[in-house]
Design a protein that fits this description.
single chain; 0% helix; mainly beta; 35% strand; 68 residues; 3-stranded antiparallel beta sheet; globular
Length: 68
């Protein structure tokens, strides 16, 4: 089975996914995610289910500010 590791409630959560096309570098995920998850990018296989995690913002990501 294929899965992604997401951060839910500050803990690692394995989410089963269905894979689609792949070009050898990138792989399409056709089901299992809704697009709003914070995913683990590196060394996901080394994490245990439920392991505490803290997400970090990608470099260069702007912070949204509300206008009055």
């Amino acid at each position: 089975k294929s899965y992604c590791v997401a951060i839910r409630d500050g803990k690692a959560k394995r989410i089963p996914v269905e894979l689609g096309l792949s070009d050898g570098t990138r792989t399409e995920i056709v089901s299992g995610l809704d697009g709003g998850e914070a995913l683990v990018k590196a060394n996901a296989a080394s994490l245990s289910e439920g392991q505490p995690l803290e997400p970090i913002k990608p470099q260069g990501q702007a912070t949204k500010q509300s206008r009055p």
